[in-house]
């Protein structure tokens, strides 16, 4: 007869004694179990003891998490969290340097446990640490002269403990003084500082900015771009990542009015970050990031890729104001820009037509505006009242006319010499192209918390977006000629151009020149070949017998997809616990049991390599207890307020499991594929239909493949029952080459 489910067999350690094998009853209060353990070792005052996991986490066992204990777990009897907090509170204030250093080291490690953190915070431990940082710097500096390693370690452990304690969200960030902020900022501004101290200081500044609007103002007044740039010029990629993260955080939280700034007479190195709108696009910062980060010998890790993506998005979002600004047809300054476009394109004609009647001049203007490709020939300003792209389109056109004058004149004159129906309207094309580029680059959207999709080429030029436009407008004109398009084909041409641009971007060119070369290989003829190839691979048979065969096969394919989804759930997935301090987020793992009856999940210290065993996952949820699966805005963790949690991409990756009485297990999938796998698998477990776009795609692919196999002419051909053996690997791979 199996033992009761509430009786668990565990091993319990106590320093200096042999471990004990015990049976613990989960129905008993935890205090009674601890008393029983203490009595076994004849230890008095059982209320001063506690149990904790004897693993790398050393987290305390509490009434809330005791259900995580599994059969065969190894526990440790140790000092209670209240006692431990009191001891460390006293040790970190010791006059003995060795005692103080050991205390800070242990505090930094113990603060990861929320149970201990709560007890230490109740002793006003956060205030103690901030006072040590504020008032202890002079003393630390004296120590630094005598024993530099001791200084670096003490300050590093102090800041690490502070960061870990604040990460639990128990204490508000708004409670910190200006003196503390100045101290942390001073560590960042020093030319030579211990790398661990610098990392923690940058992490604290980033968290302050992201969690408090008031602290954003104070931090931004203390830090200048000139003080951050040296950290980007070093070789430590972690320091570079933290530095870019601070810049991103400051711009993400900057009020709209603070993003507008006159650069003409300002030294950006000395400028407070609160006053700088276009600092992300400044040559000095961009060049340093390009040379020391993107083109460095070290591979870019996942977190750095995310921060570069954030930087790219925030840079392009500076264009949002112009993109959403309508042109005022009565504004003479804005109308002068259109006159400038006309002057550059038809300079000779303008000189010879300065005189004459008003009607004649109006007629000339109308003729020229038609040649420039505006929809409204009489008043082209009306064309720029559409938002998006608003005034951004006019900015792009003027830049192209001034900085690529030969190409601009050639395009305008080339099209004005064609028949009316075959001309490529430069004005209309520029407006629609600007709108398209804003959509492709998602100008105006908040950055995604899970995206790492940055493009190196946008860091190679101070005006990368408008240069991007200049390349694409020439591509549009070239594609128009290759398609021999007429005015009725305008939308078709734009679709082809979008495909050319997006396909070229997927190759992640390192420079704008590489992007241009990539586009040269994606001519209209090549796009037709690609489309034809894709159509052949997705050939769809519409005859009635074949449709009937598809319907007959479909249930088998759906069952195959269902089994694949459930198998993936059995393998499990590592999920990230999203918080404001992203780089130091924790991980957790969830997987389905092989019998499909229980979901096992638990926290991890780092992203795992391969599968995580069931017995190492502390929590479990019976599938029978699941009431529903909700997604997107219906998830409890998506209803919380926070700028990063409200963007579209994170919402698309969020799902939650509802169980018992309004209890939720919240997920944010690492990518769209995992999101579809898990939502499909959970729906399959609940007997519901799998409706994700990946299911539709898999169904279509597998159905087409099965149909082609069944329709093969296999008469008199013997099909082997066993698959052919896999050939041996070749002795070398010298025959492999890059097709591109």
Automatic annotation (TrEMBL):
Record-annotated ELMO domain positions: 333-505
Keyword Cytoplasm: yes
Domain of life: Eukaryota
CDD domains: PH_ELMO1_CED-12
GO function term, MF aspect, one: SH3 domain binding
Any one biological process term the GO annotation gives: positive regulation of angiogenesis
This protein's UniProt keywords: Apoptosis, Cytoplasm, Membrane, Phagocytosis, Phosphoprotein, SH3-binding
Compartment(s) of residence: Cytoplasm; Membrane
Keyword Phosphoprotein: yes
Gene3D superfamilies found in the cross-reference section: 6.10.250.810, Leucine-rich Repeat Variant, Pleckstrin-homology domain (PH domain)/Phosphotyrosine-binding domain (PTB)
InterPro entries: ARM-like (IPR011989), ARM-type_fold (IPR016024), ELMO_ARM (IPR024574), ELMO_dom (IPR006816), ELMO_domain-containing (IPR050868), PH-like_dom_sf (IPR011993), PH_domain (IPR001849)
PANTHER family in the cross-refs: ENGULFMENT AND CELL MOTILITY (PTHR12771), ENGULFMENT AND CELL MOTILITY PROTEIN 1 (PTHR12771:SF23)
Function according to Swiss-Prot or TrEMBL: Involved in cytoskeletal rearrangements required for phagocytosis of apoptotic cells and cell motility. Acts in association with DOCK1 and CRK. Was initially proposed to be required in complex with DOCK1 to activate Rac Rho small GTPases. May enhance the guanine nucleotide exchange factor (GEF) activity of DOCK1.
The protein, known as: Engulfment and cell motility 1 (ced-12 homolog, C. elegans)
């Amino acid at each position: 007869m199996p033992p009761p489910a509430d009786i668990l067999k565990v091993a319990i350690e106590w320093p200096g004694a042999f471990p004990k094998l015990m049976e613990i009853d989960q129905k008993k209060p935890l205090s009674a179990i601890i008393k029983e353990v203490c009595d076994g070792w004849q230890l008095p005052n059982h209320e001063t003891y506690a149990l904790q996991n004897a693993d790398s986490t050393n987290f305390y066992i509490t009434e809330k998490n005791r259900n995580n204990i599994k059969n065969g777990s190894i526990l440790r009897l140790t000092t209670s969290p209240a006692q431990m907090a009191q001891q460390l509170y006293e040790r970190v204030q010791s006059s003995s340097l060795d005692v103080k250093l050991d205390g800070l080291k242990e505090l930094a490690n113990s603060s990861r446990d929320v149970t201990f953190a709560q007890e230490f915070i109740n002793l006003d431990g956060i205030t103690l640490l901030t006072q040590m940082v504020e008032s202890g710097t002079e003393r630390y500096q004296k120590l630094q002269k005598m024993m530099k390693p001791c200084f670096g370690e003490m300050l590093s452990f102090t800041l690490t403990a502070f960061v870990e304690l604040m990460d639990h969200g128990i204490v508000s960030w708004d409670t910190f003084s200006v003196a503390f902020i100045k101290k942390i900022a001073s560590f960042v501004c020093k030319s030579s500082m211990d790398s661990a101290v610098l990392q923690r200081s940058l992490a604290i500044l980033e968290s302050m900015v992201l969690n408090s609007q008031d602290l954003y103002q104070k931090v931004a007044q203390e830090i200048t771009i000139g003080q951050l740039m040296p950290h980007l010029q070093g070789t430590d990629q972690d320091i570079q990542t933290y530095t870019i993260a601070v810049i991103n955080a400051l711009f993400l939280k900057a009020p709209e009015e603070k993003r507008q700034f006159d650069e003409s007479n300002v030294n950006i190195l000395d400028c407070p970050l609160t006053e700088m709108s276009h600092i992300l696009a400044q040559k000095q910062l961009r060049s340093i990031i390009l040379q020391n980060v993107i083109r460095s010998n070290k591979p870019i890790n996942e977190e750095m890729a995310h921060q570069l993506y954030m930087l790219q998005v925030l840079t392009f979002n500076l264009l949002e104001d112009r993109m959403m600004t309508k042109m005022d047809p009565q504004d003479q300054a804005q109308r002068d820009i259109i006159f400038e476009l006309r002057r550059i394109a038809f300079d000779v004609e303008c000189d010879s037509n300065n005189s004459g009647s008003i009607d004649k001049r109006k007629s000339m203007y109308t003729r020229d505006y038609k040649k420039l490709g505006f929809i409204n020939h009489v008043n082209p300003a009306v064309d720029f009242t559409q938002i998006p792209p608003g005034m951004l389109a006019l900015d792009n056109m003027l830049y192209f006319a001034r900085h690529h004058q030969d190409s601009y004149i050639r395009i305008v004159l080339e099209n004005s010499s064609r028949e009316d129906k075959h001309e490529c309207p430069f004005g209309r094309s520029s407006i629609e192209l600007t709108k398209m580029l804003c959509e492709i680059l998602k100008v105006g959207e908040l950055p995604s918390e899970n995206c790492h999709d940055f493009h190196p080429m946008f860091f190679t030029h101070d005006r990368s977006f408008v240069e991007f436009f200049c390349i694409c407008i020439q591509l549009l004109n070239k594609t128009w000629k290759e398609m021999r398009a007429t005015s009725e084909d305008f939308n078709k041409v734009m679709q082809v151009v979008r495909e050319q641009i997006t396909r070229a971007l997927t190759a992640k060119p390192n420079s704008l020149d590489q992007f241009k070369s990539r586009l040269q290989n994606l001519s209209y003829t090549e796009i037709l070949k690609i489309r034809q190839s894709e159509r052949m691979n997705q050939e769809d048979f519409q005859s009635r017998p074949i449709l009937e065969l598809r319907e007959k096969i479909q249930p088998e394919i759906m069952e195959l997809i269902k089994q694949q989804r459930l198998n993936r759930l059995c393998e499990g997935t590592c999920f990230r616990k999203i918080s404001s301090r992203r780089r130091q987020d924790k991980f957790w793992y969830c997987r389905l049991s092989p019998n499909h009856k229980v979901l096992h999940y638990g926290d991890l210290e780092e992203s795992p390599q391969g599968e995580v065993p069931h017995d190492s996952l502390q929590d479990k949820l019976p599938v029978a207890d699941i009431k529903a699966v909700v997604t997107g805005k219906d998830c409890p963790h998506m209803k919380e307020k926070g700028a990063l949690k409200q963007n579209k991409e994170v919402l698309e990756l969020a799902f939650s499991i509802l169980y018992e009485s309004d209890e939720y297990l919240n997920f944010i999938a690492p990518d769209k594929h995992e999101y579809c796998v898990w939502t499909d698998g959970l729906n399959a477990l609940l007997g519901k239909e799998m409706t994700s776009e990946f299911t539709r795609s898999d169904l279509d692919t597998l159905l087409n493949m099965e149909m082609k196999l069944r329709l093969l002419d296999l008469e008199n051909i013997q099909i082997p029952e066993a698959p052919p053996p896999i050939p041996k690997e070749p002795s070398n791979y010298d025959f492999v080459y890059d097709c591109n």
